[in-house]
């Protein structure tokens, strides 16, 4: 005869929560590190190009991402540092660092988008090349590298959002090295055997009294 009970069986959500924590940790590390590397790489590439008219004719000009704006590279470094710092802090500190990580990603995206159509860097180079402070760049074109930096910033932002959502489940950097609060028992010296002269000499070297007095 089977018995039916209305009491629900308890469910254990710990395995699922731990699995989600591990997966989010791996994804955040991948996104954060990859995003910072992509953003830094993109800022070192050519973002725009054009020409300026000089005495000898059109003179080609190019501008790298770092010439246009230094914000994406700086924020990518901040985001990478915040990604590491997430594991060095706990509770409210971890939440604040995760927020900084997300803001670094959002700032990288915004700065790269603003720099995608910027011509100030090439205008400055045009003025220097022509010797005319009023000169501006001609035939201005932009490359796709600013949008690569945007993608890098988006990955950093995703890492920050994952840290905000799942960071409390991640282990701390010092957790694996922490020990229990109980003091470790001291090893007691082994009693010296008076019938073994070598042990008497070792005890004397250690500053011990081999006679046990």
From TrEMBL:
It holds the Pfam family Trp_oprn_chp. The keyword Membrane applies. Residues 190-213 have a biased composition (Basic and acidic residues). The chain crosses the membrane at residues 25-43, 68-88, 95-116, 144-164. Keywords: Membrane, Transmembrane, Transmembrane helix. InterPro entries: Trp_biosyn_TM_oprn/chp, Trp_synth-assoc_CHP. The keyword NAD does not apply. Residues 175-213 are annotated as: Disordered. This is TIGR02234 family membrane protein. It comes from Streptomyces lanatus.
């Amino acid at each position: 005869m089977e018995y039916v009970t209305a009491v629900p069986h308890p469910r254990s959500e710990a395995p699922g929560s731990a699995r989600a924590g591990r997966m989010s940790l791996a994804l955040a590390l991948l996104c954060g590190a990859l995003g910072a590397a992509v953003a830094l790489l993109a800022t070192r590439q050519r973002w725009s190009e054009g020409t300026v008219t000089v005495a000898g004719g059109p003179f080609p000009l190019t501008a790298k991402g770092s010439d246009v704006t230094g914000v994406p590279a700086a924020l990518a470094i901040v985001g990478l540092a915040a990604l590491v710092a997430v594991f060095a802090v706990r509770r409210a500190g971890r939440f604040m660092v995760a927020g900084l990580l997300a803001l670094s990603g959002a700032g990288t995206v915004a700065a790269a988008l603003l720099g995608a159509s910027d011509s100030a860097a090439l205008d400055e180079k045009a003025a220097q090349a022509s010797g005319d402070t009023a000169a501006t760049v001609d035939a201005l074109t932009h490359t796709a590298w600013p949008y690569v930096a945007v993608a890098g910033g988006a990955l950093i932002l995703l890492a920050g959002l994952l840290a905000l959502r799942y960071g409390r489940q991640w282990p701390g950097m010092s957790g694996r090295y922490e020990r229990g609060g109980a003091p470790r028992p001291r090893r007691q010296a082994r009693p010296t055997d008076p019938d073994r002269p070598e042990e008497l000499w070792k005890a004397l070297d250690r500053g011990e009294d081999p006679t046990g007095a």
